[in-house]
């Protein structure tokens, strides 16, 4: 954008000088020609009295002397023709007298066809200017005075005019080129601050603001508007997070008290009412799980936790060992596979919580006798934790919505809050990673957590290794 603005700032003065300078130069050149023609016509009219004496009374010596003086004084050449177009006397022009008499300007003057107040006709030949003035005596046309003038001085004056315009254009180009870069930086500085603040705000830094004292007034208003919008969004997000956190925390005590009262009622419940009591206790447990999930989600979205190096293999082995205790009674095998030590850059507890979500969903959906695979892979920039089950999987439209809050698939069992994958996705985003859901090799679900790698990548890894392994 800066290059386009600099180009516009440079091109605009040049375009203005061109649009205004070219007509001005053409006008001044035409004025110079007309001024020269007017001066030559005036000088020719001054010779008219001597021409009348020569044409009417035959006194040519006076005419010759006047023509010679005129040539010495101005450098121009004068020639006199009678009413029939025959040469009477005068200095030689570039054209011969016969050729000069055939010029349109001379023929028009011989016919008395003049229209302007100076009674002249002007012809611009290749190398000289020809001015013809009719000579009137006693109300009759008695001849024509023709003045021929070289165009050297006129061309020099015209070239001077064009040179002045060119110099002005060059100065405008130089000045605009010198001032365009600082001016563009001054104009775009608020835009750069706004872009940086918007990126920080989108990344979760809701304290990002833009200086409001830089740049043009319109951009200052834009900066103030952005800051006001950021404050409103920050306030709304804070209110929402506070509500979720406070509501979840405050509801814990009533639920604990409710569970205790239900358990205390067990000795007083008739045998046929035990089933209802178990269902009530199950609903209390489910509500407690939802509240715990909401608290975890609120902490994940706060974005205020420190990032550190996490030993992904150690965390995965510890969580797999814990979940095997749940899987063995269901006749489900949980395996872990990976090469070497994998270190990710993440908030402490992120890998634990996301892997717990993956394994919980996998064990609930996997059939007895199947295997749930946990695989650890990395490439040059990312570390991936993959969980693959042999369950019914998800359709593409279900995978697209699986990370939405409180969404549950059509095949979901009765338990569950619909917050597990939403929490996993939120934790991944808070660590500059993401959760990927795709179809597993046997039709089950392939859930994958990708986090930024910490430290140099292995030499034997290629940039596409992670993607290839995830497809394998």
Describe this structure in words.
The chain is an alpha+beta fold. It folds into three domains: 1-155, 2-Layer Sandwich (Beta-Lactamase); 213-304, Signal transduction histidine kinase, dimerisation/phosphotransfer (DHp) domain (Helix Hairpins); 305-409 and 416-455, Heat Shock Protein 90, CATH 3.30.565. It has helices at 2-46, 48-57, 60-74, 97-101, 104-110, 152-202, 217-264, 274-302, 312-327, 350-365, 396-401, 420-430, 465-471, and strands spanning 77-82, 87-90, 121-124, 128-137, 140-150, 307-311, 333-338, 343-347, 371-378, 382-388, 434-439, 445-452. Strands 2-1-5-4-3 form a five-stranded antiparallel β-sheet. The longest helix has 51 residues, at 152-202. It is rod-shaped, with a radius of gyration of 49 Å. Mean pLDDT is 78; it is low at 115-121, 456-465 and 467-472.
Number of helices: 13
Say which CATH homologous superfamily of the largest domain is assigned: PAS domain
Distance between the termini: 44 Å
Number-wise, the strands total 12
Helix content: 55-70%
**Uncertain regions: pLDDT < 50 for 5+ in a row?**
115-121, 456-465, 467-472
Stated plainly, the CATH topology of the largest domain is called Beta-Lactamase
What's the oligomerization state?
A: single chain
CATH class of the largest domain: Alpha Beta
Largest sheet: 5 strands, antiparallel
SSE order, as H and E?
HHHEEHHEEEHHHEHEEHEEHHEEH
What is the radius of gyration?
49 Å
CATH architecture of the largest domain: 2-Layer Sandwich
Query: Helix/strand-derived class?
Result: alpha+beta
Which range does the strand content fall in? 15-25%
- In round numbers, the mean pLDDT is 78
- The count of domains is 3
Enzyme class: transferase
Main location: membrane
Pfam family, one: HAMP
Catalytic activity: ATP + protein L-histidine = ADP + protein N-phospho-L-histidine
């Amino acid at each position: 954008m800066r290059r386009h603005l600099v180009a516009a700032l440079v091109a605009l003065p040049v375009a203005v000088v061109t649009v205004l300078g070219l007509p001005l130069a053409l006008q001044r050149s035409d004025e110079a020609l007309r001024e020269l023609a007017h001066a030559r016509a005036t000088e020719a009219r001054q010779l008219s009295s001597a021409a009348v004496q020569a044409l009417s009374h035959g006194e040519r010596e006076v005419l010759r002397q006047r023509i010679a003086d005129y040539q010495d004084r101005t450098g121009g050449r004068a020639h006199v023709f009678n009413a029939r177009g025959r040469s009477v006397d005068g200095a030689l022009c570039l054209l011969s007298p016969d050729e000069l008499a055939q010029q349109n300007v001379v023929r028009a003057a011989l016919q008395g066809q003049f229209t302007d107040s100076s009674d002249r006709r002007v012809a611009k030949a290749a190398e000289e200017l020809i001015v013809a003035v009719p000579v009137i005596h006693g109300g009759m046309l008695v001849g024509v005075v023709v003045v021929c003038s070289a165009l050297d001085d006129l061309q020099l004056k015209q070239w001077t005019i064009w040179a002045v315009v060119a110099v002005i254009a060059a100065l405008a180009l130089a000045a605009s080129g010198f001032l365009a870069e600082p001016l563009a930086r001054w104009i775009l500085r608020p835009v750069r601050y706004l872009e940086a603040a918007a990126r920080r705000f989108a990344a979760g830094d809701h304290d990002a603001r833009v200086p409001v004292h830089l740049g043009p007034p319109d951009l200052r208003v834009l900066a103030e508007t952005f800051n006001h919008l950021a404050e409103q969004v920050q306030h709304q997000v804070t209110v929402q997070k506070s509500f979720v956190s406070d509501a979840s925390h405050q509801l814990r005590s009533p639920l604990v008290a409710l569970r205790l009262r239900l358990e205390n009622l067990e000795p007083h419940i008739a045998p046929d009412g035990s089933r209802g009591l178990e269902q009530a206790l199950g609903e209390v447990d489910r509500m407690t799980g939802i509240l715990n999930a909401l608290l975890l989600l609120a902490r994940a979205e706060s974005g205020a936790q420190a990032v550190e190096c996490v030993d992904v293999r150690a965390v995965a082995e510890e969580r797999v060992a814990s979940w095997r205790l749940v899987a063995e009674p269901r006749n489900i095998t949980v395996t872990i596979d990976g090469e070497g030590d994998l270190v990710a850059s993440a908030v402490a507890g992120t890998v634990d919580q996301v892997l717990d979500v993956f394994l919980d969903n996998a064990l609930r959906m996997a059939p007895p006798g199947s295997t749930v695979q946990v695989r650890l892979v990395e490439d040059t920039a990312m570390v991936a934790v993959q969980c693959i089950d042999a369950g019914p999987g998800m359709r593409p439209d279900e995978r697209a919505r699986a990370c939405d809050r409180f969404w549950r698939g059509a095949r979901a069992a009765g338990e569950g809050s619909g917050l597990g994958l939403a929490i996993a996705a939120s934790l991944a985003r808070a660590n500059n990673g993401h959760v990927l859901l795709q179809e597993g090799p046997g039709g089950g679900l392939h859930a994958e957590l990708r986090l930024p790698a910490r430290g140099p990548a292995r030499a034997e890894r290629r940039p596409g290794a992670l993607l290839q392994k995830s497809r394998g």
